[in-house]
# Entry
Amino acid sequence: MTGLKEVLLKEQGRLENIIAAVKRQLENTPPGSLRISTSKNGISYYHYQITDKGNGTYISRKNNDLIQKLAQKTYNEKVLKYAEKRLQYVKRLADSYDDNGIEGIYEQEHPGRQKWIHPIEPTWKQRVDEWLKEEYQGKGFKETDPFIYTERGERVRSKSEKILADYFYSHNIPYKYEHPLYLTGFGIVYPDFTVLSQRTRHEMYWEHNGRMDDPAYARKAVKKLQNYEKNNIFVGEKLILTYETEQSVIQTKDIERLARNILLLVDNSTKSL
# Structure
């Protein structure tokens, strides 16, 4: 799941937006407050100000605009008080919270001590190393397929797939090319890339649809997407899609935007895995 730190920062931003919006609404409100009196004849509304005695000045039902403004003012003041108090709490928690605090304890130990320690939870590096060790049989190539190789030295089917693989490699995004995946009701598929997300710490699938201007190819891509969804693999959650036509090719900036929004938790060095 998304790290708690990120959730806290999003909540901080939400509260700051609420506070700003409420303060803007309070700028042009009438002085005083709304008082409500209930009797057998119904509800009566009064405009109360500090200098008033009793309930204040009776507000005629013809003056609904004043009633609404005073009621909204009271509500906004309560929201502002609550949001400001909650924001202070969220800020303190966000400033002190570290998603990787337990992992950091192990990583800060001396290498001579680390080799004797079994971390209570596998570190990210340990998980990645174990994940990459898995052997698997990919889809295989036809004799007519082009010979295109990535920076990591593996063969792929297109220049666009090379661009994707090289981006993953240079940004420390663990990936497997065409790792088999069984979809109920469809059978074995070979997602272009299976990646490990730093943000969720789970596997995701990255499919690049490179010939969407070919009707037959597009129909096949849609059918595959439908079968992903039938297996509870949804775009934005466990599935990332990129598209391409002959006139509109994939750009590195497109990959960058998706990777930073979905896969990467923090800025990464260009050191290869």
